[in-house]
Amino acid sequence: MSSPIHILNGPNLNRLGKREPEIYGHTTLAEVESLCRQAAGTRPVVFRQSGYEGQLVDWIHEAIDEPAAAIVINPAGLTFTSIPILDALKMFPGPIIELHISNIHRREEIYHRSLVSRIATAVIAGLGPSGYGTAVEAALRLIEDTDQ
């Protein structure tokens, strides 16, 4: 059995579909999960969301210890503040895709400096919820490249 892709979601993403639909759209997190599983094909997916920084760090540690094939992470507001998430991701040896539904660079200044980007293999922003499918597809390609 192949190693899973871990898809980790930070604070407030459980509110997708209700929260600021003019920015994030009407797609729910359950629909995003379905999209990710479809994009992954036969590759297993571990899909999680938490509003708690420490929980996300624990899940990154699980991805390291399991080991996971790749991490797709939308740390949401923790993108810009969390040294613990950055430090945990530094320990992950595989591909890391940082994902944002909106284009963080077109938003307020506070959203322009991602700590996670310092360690991410790639960054996807501004594609809306469909960006998750793009991120999973990119992770699959990166996994293939490292397996060869």
From TrEMBL:
It comes from the Bacteria. Substrate binds at residues 74, 87, 101-102. Belongs to the type-II 3-dehydroquinase family. The keyword Lyase applies. NCBIfam families: PRK05395.1-3 (NF003806), PRK05395.1-4 (NF003807). The gene is aroQ. Keywords: Amino-acid biosynthesis, Aromatic amino acid biosynthesis, Lyase. Pathway: Metabolic intermediate biosynthesis; chorismate biosynthesis; chorismate from D-erythrose 4-phosphate and phosphoenolpyruvate: step 3/7. Its EC number is 4.2.1.10. The record marks 19 as: Transition state stabilizer. Catalyzes a trans-dehydration via an enolate intermediate. It catalyses: 3-dehydroquinate = 3-dehydroshikimate + H2O. Homododecamer. Gene3D superfamilies: Dehydroquinase, class II. One of its GO terms (biological process) is chorismate biosynthetic process. This is 3-dehydroquinate dehydratase. HAMAP family: AroQ. The keyword Transcription does not apply. The active site is at residues 24, 100. GO terms for molecular function: 3-dehydroquinate dehydratase activity.
